[in-house]
Task: structure prediction
Amino acid sequence: MCPRVIHPGHQDGGDLTAARRFRMIMRNPEDSTTFKRPETGIMRILVIVLILLLAILHHDWWWWDAKEPLVLGFMPIGLAWHAGISLAAGLVGLVAVKFCWPDHLDEEEETGKAAADAGKEEAS
Amino acid sequence: MSFTIILCYLALLLFLGIFAGRLLKKSSGDFFLASRGIGPFMLLMSVFGTTMTAFALIGSTGKTFEFGIGVYGLMASWSGIIHAAIFFLIGAKVWALGKKHGYVTQIAYFRDRYQSDGVALLLFPLVVCFVVLYILMGVIGAGRFIEGVTPETFSSDKVTTVELKADIGELNIPPPWKKRAAYNQETGTVTVTDWEGHLTYNAETGTLAATGSLHPKRKGLFMNLSKAPEWKKAVGALVAKAPRGAVPKWAGMAIVCLVVLFYVFFGGMRATAWANTMQTLVFMVMGLIAFYVITKELGGPVEASKKLLANEAKNSRMAREGLIGQWQFLTYCFIPLSVGMFPHLFQHWLTAKKASNFKLTVVAHPICILITWVPCVLLGMWAFGVLPDTTNPNAVLGVMVARYSGEVLAGLIGAGVLAAIMSSMDSQFLCLSSLFTNDIISHHFGKDGISDEKKILLGRGFVVLIVLICYLIGLSNTQSVFDLGIWCFTGFAGLFPILFAALYWKRSNKQGAIAGVLTLAVLETAGYLLSLAEHEGEFLILGMMPVAFIVAITTAVMVIVTLLTPPPDEELVEKFFPAKN
Result:
């Protein structure tokens, strides 16, 4: 049995499991086989809008005195709504780290390290 | 049994400390920052464990019992949104600056950013004061909790007697208790299978006596021996009066402090990060286990909620009406800002191996909050349906565990709660050690150079002193410490605008920062003094959380003073805001 290798040029990302896709995003946000990266500026605005939307949806006065319906048969709607807000916060976080992550922070670090290594080699 | 399980857990932590200590390189960089080598999963667990205290398990259940399910929206879902945003906007940036300029502490960053010892010297006592308050809550909480979960650990020969003022007739063991208890009519003695003591009722003298230490959970059994109100009153008085045979608060506090000090001192940040990872997993898993066991005993989640909903007198906790104000709910969003200024969390951020390690924390932190809080909030809600309204909110989880599970589970959950307490406490101990060593000793008295070993030794000495002070305060009357708790978070949140300006506002200068810190100190003191006059419920201003006003005023003062004073040097701006190529 050979382990399945995803070739860098492989365009069909459709059969990736969600977990694998998530791991790939975490490891390599630049990998074009998983997603095409839209303009960071637009995505930054989108993430800000999503966070503001979450903050607005958080203030759910419409469920203030509602005990029902019971979501999944046991969770009062007011609690289920806020559990959903927490899940949505995680998803917005995922969008933010995928599209708006300041990659330059690690790049600067790696460039600095590479320059230092090169310096050491020259010195030796 | 409960105490044995807790002791085993503490022994495991000691072992972890020794193991991490073996790997410790003898440098202050490794001791304080684990050589900046922490990976994404450990970073998530450290950060989550540090932000969640015992409140995540005990407080969430108790507050829901008191204020209903709105507690989740108030404290958990706001935290999910705001903490994640802070980790994204502040955490990764702080990490990069720390790595580039070699910062070990938050104070060092502020000193360098504003080129001002004044800012650092103003911040130091304020930050230390808030952290000490935080530690105090943990130390006292741990002592009280251990005392609460270990009754009948030590046997006692003491005989406790109460008088009955009326005849209560004959005693009977009701059917559900017959497997556990037997009543000897001749001697008037009740023998319980899992209890070393005896309960003796003397009808002639009209007295009720218990021999040995008594767990409050026995109250239910004893009360059911007779239906007479006088009998129930006497049993209540007896249980309250009898020795509990528990690990005393002073001993619980001392044990927890010593264990945490041990693994922090031996293993530094590496041990702290490992212990945090383990402790976070422990309290998350234990919370879920408690939920599963109790829910099963309640007939399953659907049945428990249906029963509560049908009970008109008790179902108020399933909504927010009349329990939480709308403005209070909205303005609570300022409290989670405090996380940005926690110095112990700041130090955890600096331990990351690379900036991208923060990604997992940003995404998973709100989910971890969900996993921990939702079960506890549901338990608190259901508890209101089955427990008397007068139950002490902080005891709700303990009472539910005692009522619906055995001693083994009580011990495991006890270990989980202590894990939540200690996972914050260890980071705070280490952080105080680094603040004192790096920002006071090294910076002000270490011009000739202090060896790394000496630095670590001085840091340890300072922490021992602080812990000793906390311990001594903890021995005295301590309720006021918990009342101060919200002011600790308010204080950190009030400092947040200064951090945000330092990181994102080029024009931000030391005059503005100093004005902001001083304003916060004045407002915080005034707010606390005003809150003392409020005897009942949460202290609110116009129905809003005081933190909203404090953050707004601190920000306004900082911005106005900054704009009225000269901008920082261009060189300084270039250092912290380099032009992108």
Summary: Chain A has a mean pLDDT of 72. Helices of chain A lie at 18-27, 40-58, 77-99, 104-123.
